[in-house]
Amino acid sequence: LMLSAVASLAMSIYENDDISIFIGAHADDAAGNAYADCSEAFIQAMGQAISIGTYNQCHIVAPFAACSKAGVVKRGLELHTPYELTWSCYEGGDKPCGTCGTCIDRARAFATNGVKDPALED
């Protein structure tokens, strides 16, 4: 639904332009069909539908669809992403909880890259 809404909004604002919609889904999100809308098959199908529906003006770009969370972190480290300004926690609050599944997965992805998750540092 969000991809369709973004495509619709983008086409209303940039009606004469070619548009790329970036989605940050990665392979770990799709693993075991945890989030079906993060799978490469879903992204490809939605990309085709959006492309057809916008007369080939709007395209989905999913640069991390085949990449693990550790791979995403690695690429971000290479690009000097300010990870200290981000977190993945679903618990809300002023800082990540550090104990939910998403926090654990993120910390593991940083550890795989030999770095501590800066969002969990005090």
Would you kindly provide a brief summary of this structure?
This protein is mainly alpha-helical and 122 residues long. Helices cover 43% and strands 7% of the residues. The chain has five helices and two strands.
Keywords:
122 residues; mainly alpha; two-stranded parallel sheet; 5 helices; 2 strands; 43% helix; elongated
Task: Map the helices and strands.
Elements: H1 2-13, E1 19-22, H2 27-30, H3 40-53, E2 58-61, H4 69-78, H5 101-112
Parallel strand pairs: 1-2
Task: Characterise this structure.
By secondary structure, the chain is mainly α. The chain has helices at residues 2-13, 27-30, 40-53, 69-78, 101-112; strands at 19-22, 58-61. The chain is elongated. The protein starts with a helix and ends in a 10-residue tail after the last helix.
